[in-house]
Amino acid sequence: MSIEVRNITKKYGDFHALDDVSVSLPTGQLTALLGPSGGGKSTLLRIIAGLDTADSGTVVIEGVDATRLPPQQRNVGFVFQHYAVFKHMTVAKNVAFGMEIRKRPRAEVRRRVEELLELVHLAPFAHRMPSQLSGGQRQRMALARALAVEPSVLLLDEPFGALDAKVRKELRDWLRRLHDEVHVTTVFVTHDQEEAMEVADEIVVVNGGRIEQVGSPDQLYDEPANDFVMGFLGDVTVLGALRLRPHDIDVAVQPGQAGALPGRVVRMLRVGFEMRLTVELDDSVAAHHRGGPVSVVLTRSHAHALDLELGSRVWLTPAVGATTVPAMVAV
């Protein structure tokens, strides 16, 4: 394993930011630390980087106990959400900075900077100042600077959080391709479920200072360990005595299937290719239903094929193979 976090605890006064956290992060893998704000994911990343100190526990990086090592001796690259660029230096000088303070030969620094700027598609901008770059370009420059010192681990703290949605999408596609080229062990923090699902090999769900589940995107989505993981990784609704995802509900416009719950469409919202329905179930099934109105997601073409409109009578059943958990309380 590239990074071993063992029994890490971190408190701020009475607040447990991390509570006896242990996790293994494999070599060469792109891992997401995913969770809500204040859940502990950034604190864990900063402790791995050496920017914060744990109250107890150990951090082992590439087989070396790094718990007491300062950040500069851990051989990690760190990229912040807001770039932390040197505004008075050109793009090339920003990328070269870490190598220059390590007294690398000038020819090696020049060659490495050229390689990295080609890698992150910034070669034509080498002599520009950071203020002349777009937000996405500045973040790519920050990644190149972190990679310049050839770290064994690359740590990214919500690297795309300051960017708009379109640029975020472009950059996470680019990060996945970059990782496949350089294969450096990478850990990134995000609260964006789609970002984690799309980019990461493995996701560590962190909540309330504890780890809820570790697994591949498919494992977490299809086999959530608990109600929190299921709800955090996608929309959830209640149908009868089950919690499930809105797109995992079959809709019929005629009664027939055993166990189908009858209701009426009270709201329809089109979002791109999706049609989002709100279905109010009949009073006759209220005793067997533990939630309020049911959310259902269909493709627009499917909704048209069913000829759905406001007030349509429908019968709802869980789809075959749907991921479900018991609905313990109303939502």
Strand elements, count:
18
Distance separating the two termini: 40 Å
Query: Widest sheet: strand order?
Result: 6-7-8-3-9-10
- Overall geometry: elongated
Radius of gyration: 24 Å
- What percent of residues adopt helix (DSSP H or I)? 25-40%
- Whole-number mean pLDDT: 89
Topology, please?
Blueprint: E1 3-12, E2 15-25, E3 30-34, H1 41-49, E4 56-61, E5 64-65, E6 76-79, H2 91-101, H3 106-119, H4 135-148, E7 153-157, H5 165-182, E8 185-190, H6 193-199, E9 202-207, E10 210-215, H7 217-222, H8 227-232, E11 237-239, E12 242-244, E13 249-252, E14 261-271, E15 274-281, E16 294-299, H9 300-305, E17 313-318, E18 324-326
Parallel strand pairs: 3-8, 3-9, 6-7, 7-8
Antiparallel strand pairs: 1-2, 1-4, 4-5, 9-10, 11-12, 12-18, 13-17, 14-15, 14-17, 15-16
Helix pairs in contact: 2-3, 2-4, 3-4
Structure description:
Helices cover 27% and strands 32% of the residues. The chain has helices spanning 41-49, 91-101, 106-119, 135-148, 165-182, 193-199, 217-222, 227-232, 300-305; strands spanning 3-12, 15-25, 30-34, 56-61, 64-65, 76-79, 153-157, 185-190, 202-207, 210-215, 237-239, 242-244, 249-252, 261-271, 274-281, 294-299, 313-318, 324-326. It has a 6-stranded mixed sheet with strand order 6-7-8-3-9-10, with helices on both faces. It has a 5-stranded antiparallel sheet with strand order 13-17-14-15-16. Strands 2-1-4-5 form a 4-stranded antiparallel sheet, covered by helices on one side. A hairpin with a 2-residue loop joins strand 9 and strand 10 (210-215). Helix 2 crosses helix 3 (106-119).
